[in-house]
Amino acid sequence: MGEPHPLLAFFLDAADNRFPPTDGRVTVLPPLPAGLECSVAFTGHAVVATALTDEAVHAQSPDGFGESLSADFLRHLAGPTGWIDVIDATLTARGAGGPPRLAQLTDADDHPRVRHARRLRSNVRVHGDERGLITLADGLAGRREVSIELHRTQDSSRGYGRSLLSDALSLVPEGEPVFAAVSPGNARSLRAFLACGFTPIGSEVLLSPERRG
Predict the structure, then answer these.
(1) SUPFAM superfamilies, alphabetically (predicted)?
(2) pLDDT band (50, 70, 90) for residue 153
């Protein structure tokens, strides 16, 4: 097993409320595995994992106060035709441990949530029940990530997201950090994560660059 990506330390520190300095600067790290790159924003400090040189990154004058996630800077990172994912809020919580409260699913390979997880993450496990499913995987920089999708989103399923997420935390050893990337516009999902004890620590976007030359 190789050395962890240096971005992982930023996430683990943030989970313990240890954040980079609020200095407006941008830290440049090596790219992620599988040809992926990212831009992560903490309060007053940004971290960019990319194959570009420091000089090429700073040529667009990003900063730690929001410019590291601007459309112009992300296109600069990705190149003219590279893929840019959506910007997500980065949340973290602690595992509850104890007896697992969700069964592992072996027949969900064709589910869009599972396919998406396996495209971007490794060691994907799928659990769920009649409420919906969750994925647990090694995600950005090797951190443990959870995602959720309900089978129904009508009013009759109100509360399912919170109860499913609460049960998902039983699959993570007690006290160990788990992370989630949630679209800020998905208010129902964001409220469910917050209600289950997840805390915002920043925001992030994944990229798959295509650069000429």
Answers:
(1) Acyl-CoA N-acyltransferases (Nat)
(2) low
